[in-house]
Amino acid sequence: MLGAVETRSVSPVFVGRADELKALNNALARAAAGEPQALLLGGEAGVGKTRLIEEFAHAACREGAVVALGGCVEIGADGLPFAPFSTALRALHRELPAELAAAAAGQEQELARLLPELGEASRGRRPDEDGMARLFELTARLLERIAADRTVVVALEDLHWADASTRHLLAYLFRTLRSGRLVVVATYRADDIHRRHPLRPLLAELDRLRTVRRIELGRFNRTEVGRQIAGILAHEPDPAQVDEIFERSDGNAFFVEELAVASHDGCCSGLTDSLRDLLLVRVEGLPEDAQRVARIVAEGGSTVEYPLLAAVARLSEDDLIEALRAAVGANILLAAPRGDGYRFRHSLVREAVSDDLLPGERSRLNRRYAEALEADPTLVPADERATRLATYWYHAHDAAKALPAVLDASVEARCRHAYSEQLRLLERAMELWDVTPDAVRTALRPVDYTEVYPPCGCDPATTPLRYLDLMAEAAVAGRLCGERERALKITKRALRLLAEEEDPLRAAWFWVQRSRLVQAQARGDGWKELATAQELVRGLPPSEVHAEVLAMVAAWSMLHEPGADALSDAQRAVEYARMVGADDIELNARLTLGALMVDAGDIEPGLAEMFEARDRVVERSVAGVVGRSHVNLPSVLEGVGRSKEAAEVLREGIELTQKMGLLDSEAWVWTNLSESLYSLGRWDEATEAALNAHTTGQSAKPRGGGSTRLAHIALARGDLAETARRLAAARTYFGTHDPVSQNVLPLLRIAIGVAAGEGRLLDARTALYEALDSGFPPGTQRYGWPLLLASAAAEADARGLPVAEPGRADTVERIRTAAKSLPTGAPIWRAYEKWVRAELARAEGVTTPDEWFGVVTAVESLERPYDLGRVRLRLAESLLLSGADDDARARATELLRLVRAAADHLGARPLGDAVALLAQRARLTLGHASTASAPAPADAVESLGLTSRERDVLRLVAAGRSNRQIAETLFISPKTASVHVSNILAKLGVSGRGEAAALAHRLRLFPSETPAAHAVG
C-alpha cells in the first residue's frame, strides 16, 4: 500500500481562489439580507471546483446558513432525472424536517416527484401542458419558503452531466427566484462544453440574465502550485520539483496532486506524458482485488451503494473490505457523503478506469449490476431504481431484458414530469423493439406502460403493446418537454405507418397531436390537421378520441370561426365525452359550449353552463382545466359587461393557478383581471395586473395579452409613445401565424387610437378597413363594438379638417353598416350601439342632448367610470351647442366637474384635457383642485399624495408586514411591493419602513385598525 503521504494527496491548506471565494461570500451576504442569489461556477476538470464549493460551504455553515449539496448522477451515458435537486431536497429534509414539511404543506403529492420522502406522487392523471411548469413553480416557491427565515445554500455540482429536466428546472429557478435568503450555485466542467453539448444553450440563456453571475475558475500559477505541493508533502518542496510539476500539470490542481504523489513514490520518471496513463498508474499499483473493485465502481455510476457493490463483486466480505480499504487508502475511492457507498475521488480517474475496460468486460459488469438489482430492488434508492436497472440492462446488450426495463423507466420519468428523459427512454425502446424477441413483445400490455392514447374499444389489459403506442407516448412527451421538432417527426412516421392499415381513430389522434405541434411551432393555425382528424372520425361510434376531436374542433372554431357549426360540435363533444366517461374532455367542451351559447345570444343559459363546469373543476381539482375555467368564464362575463363578477372569479383563479403552479394560465388570469379592473375604474391595479401577466407568462401569447392591456391603459392616459411601444410588443408576442379575433381586433382598436391621437386619420381609417374587410364573426361583438366606437369618435373629432373630408362619408357609412351587423343582446352591447350611433351623428355635424342623454343613461348602469366620463363629456358638449341657456350651462358645468374628477382619479389625461378645453371654449368656471374652494381631500392619506394602491401598501407596512406578505395579501409580486414601498418612503420623506409605520400611527392614518389585526391576516 501507499505510504502516509498518499492519505494526504489533497492539500489540507486551501490555496488561492481569494477573488472567487470573496464573490461567493458576497453573494451569501446579499442573500442573508433577503436578496436571492444565483451563480454558475465553471472550470476545466480537476481545476478545483469541488474544493472551492467545500470551502464556501464550511464558511456558510460558520455564518449559520443551512447548506444542501446535490450532484448530477451519471450512469453510463445517462443522467438520473432531477438527481441534484432530489439530493439537495433530501439534505434539507434531514436538516430541517419540520420546516420543509410546513413549506410543502398541501403540495406533497406534486413535490414527491422530486422528494419521495414527502409521500406518494399523484398518479393516474394524463400528462398535461402545465405539469412540468407546475412542478417547477412549486419547487421554486418551496425553496423560497424554506429560505424565508434562514439563509440556505443549494449547491448543484457537475451540470455537464445534468439530464434535460434538471437543466430546465435550473433555468426556471434562476429566472424566477423572487424572494428568500437563498443562494443557488451550480458547477460545470467548462472543457466538456463543446459546440453541441446540451448545456451550452442553457449557459448562453443564463448569461443573458442580469441576476445570474458566472465565475470562471482558472489554473494555479507557479507560486500557488508550490503552496499546494507543500501542503501535500507537509514540507517545503524542492524548487526544481515545483518547476517540473508546474510545467507538467500546467497549474491544474488535480494533476498537481497526482504528480506530487507519484513523485514522492519515486515513479515520476516512469510516467508517460499521457494524461490517461498518469491517472491509471496509481490504480494499477493497487492489489488485484482492489483494481477489480475499482473497475466495478467505475461502471456502476457516480456512486455505488455498498450492498450493490458486494452483490456484483462476489467477493467474501473480508476480501471486499480489504480491497476497498486499499483503494480508499490510495485516495482512489472515497466513502460517499451519505456513508452508504463509494465513489471515485475524482471523476477523471473514474472515466480513465471506465475507458480502460474491454467491451465484453463492460457488458458483463452491467449484466451483473442488472441481475443484482433485479434480485433485490432495495439495493438502491427507490427513486433511482427504474432508471438504473434500465441503463444496466441496455448496456448489457440484452434486448429481451432491456425493453421492459426501459419502458418501466419511461413510466417513472413521466410520473416525475421528466418528459425529456421519458422521450429519450421511449426512443431507446423503439430502437430495441425490432431486436426484442416476439414472445417478450407480445407479453407487454399498454395498461402498464402507456396512457396518452385511449383504449377506444380494446382492452388495454389483454391487448399487446404496439410500436404505435410507443410513438404516441413519445409524441406527447416531445411536445411537453419542448422537443416539438422531434415530436413532429414521430407523428409523421406514425401516420406513414397508419397509411398501410385501417385504424382511423388512431390516425385521427395523431392528426390532433400534429395540430397542437404546428400551432406551438408557429407554423400555422392547426386547422388543416384538425379538419383531417374530423373527417377520419366522421360516422364512427362515440369514443374518447372522437370526443376529443370534436372538442378540439369546437375550441378552435370558437376562436377562429364561431357559429352554428362550432356550437353543434361542442354539443356533440359534451355528449360523446359523457357517453365514454371522459370527464376532462367533457368539462373542456362544456366551457366551449357555454361561451358559444353566450356568443349566440343565449346569455344566461350559456353562463350557467360555464359556472357549473367551473364548480366541477374546482371540486375535483382538475389541473388541466382549472386554468381554462378561470380564464374563459370571466372573459365571457367581462364581455357581457359583468365586470365585478368577472373580477371575483379571476381572484379565485389567481389563487388556484398559483397554488397549482399553472404559470401561463395565471398570466391569462392576470390579463383578464386587468381588463375587468380597467372597466371598473381601478387603473393602478389594472396596470399591476397587466405587469404581472407580462412577467408571469412563460410563453409568448400570455405576455402578448399583458402587453395589450398595458397599451390600452397607456392610451387612455395619453402616453402615446408608451402605447406604441406596448402595441409593437404585443404584435411580436402574438405573431402572424395564427391570427384570432380576440387578439387582432383589440390591437387594431389601439392602433386606431394611437393614429387618431397623433393626427394620422388616414392611418386610423386603414386600421378600421383592415378590421371591416375581415368582418366580425359571431362572438366578436365584445371586440367589434369598441373598435367601431374608436373609429366613429376619431371621425367625429376630425370633422372639419381638410384631411378628413375625402372619404369621410364612405367611412361613416361603413361603420354604420358594420354596427347594424353586431348583436345587441346584452346591456353593454346596447349601450355601445347607442354610443356609436351618437358619435356617427356627431361626425355628420348632428348632435342633440336627447340622444346623448340616452347614451349616458345606458352607460350609467354599467359601473364603468371612464366610459361614463366620456359620454358625460359629450352630453355637456351637446348641451352647450344646443342653445346654451343658463340652465343648460349649469347642467354642463356640473357634468364637466364630474368628468374632471373622474379623469383626475383615473389619470386619464386626454379626458381631463378635453374637459378643460371645452370649459375654456364655453367660458365655464369649473374651479381648481389646488384652490381653497376645491373639495378637500377625502382623508389624510390622499393629502400625502399617495395613490389608492400605495394607501393599501402603507396600511400593511404600518401593520409590520414584509414585502412578501404584502405581495401575498394584495396579489402582486414581491418586486412590485418593493417598488411601492420605495415610492411611499420617498413621498413621506422618511428613510425606512419603521419611520413610515411610526408616521402612519402618529397621524392616525388608519385609526380603525390595529397592527395586531393585520398581523392575524
What this model shows, in words?
- It is a single chain.
- This protein has 51 helices and 10 strands.
- With 1017 residues, the chain is mostly helical.
- The strands form 3 sheets. It has a 5-stranded parallel β-sheet with strand order 2-5-6-1-7. A 3-stranded antiparallel β-sheet has the order 8-10-9.
- Strand 9 and strand 10 form a beta hairpin.
- Helix 9 (222-233) crosses helix 10, helix 12 (275-284) packs across helix 16 and helix 44 (886-906) packs antiparallel against helix 45 (909-922).
- The two termini are 67 Å apart.
In summary, what is this structure?
By secondary structure, the chain is mainly alpha-helical.
**Helix/sheet category:** mainly alpha
Largest sheet: 5 strands, parallel
Query: Taking Cα atoms only, what radius of gyration do you get, to the nearest Å?
Result: 34 Å
Number of helices: 51
As laid out across the biggest beta sheet, the strand order is 2-5-6-1-7
Integer average pLDDT:
86
As residue ranges, the low-confidence spans are: 1-8, 267-273, 929-938, 1008-1017
Strand content: under 5%
Termini distance?
Answer: 67 Å
- Please give the number of β-strands: 10
Percentage of residues in helical conformation: 55-70%
Shape designation: globular
List the helices and strands and how they pair.
Layout: H1 18-32, E1 37-43, H2 49-62, E2 66-71, E3 74-75, E4 78-79, H3 83-95, H4 97-103, H5 108-111, H6 131-146, E5 152-157, H7 164-176, E6 182-189, H8 199-207, E7 212-216, H9 222-233, H10 239-249, H11 253-264, H12 275-284, H13 288-300, E8 304-305, H14 306-313, H15 317-329, E9 333-335, E10 341-344, H16 347-355, H17 359-375, H18 382-395, H19 399-415, H20 419-433, H21 438-443, H22 446-449, H23 467-481, H24 484-498, H25 504-520, H26 527-537, H27 544-560, H28 564-580, H29 583-599, H30 603-620, H31 623-639, H32 643-660, H33 663-679, H34 683-696, H35 700-716, H36 720-734, H37 741-757, H38 761-774, H39 781-797, H40 808-821, H41 827-843, H42 849-860, H43 865-881, H44 886-906, H45 909-922, H46 940-943, H47 948-958, H48 963-970, H49 974-988, H50 993-1002, H51 1011-1016
Helix pairs in contact: 1-2, 3-4, 6-7, 7-8, 9-10, 9-11, 10-11, 12-16, 13-15, 13-16, 14-17, 17-18, 18-19, 19-20, 20-23, 23-24, 23-25, 24-25, 25-26, 25-27, 26-27, 27-28, 27-29, 28-29, 29-30, 29-31, 30-31, 31-32, 31-33, 32-33, 33-34, 33-35, 34-35, 35-36, 35-37, 36-37, 37-38, 37-39, 38-39, 39-40, ...
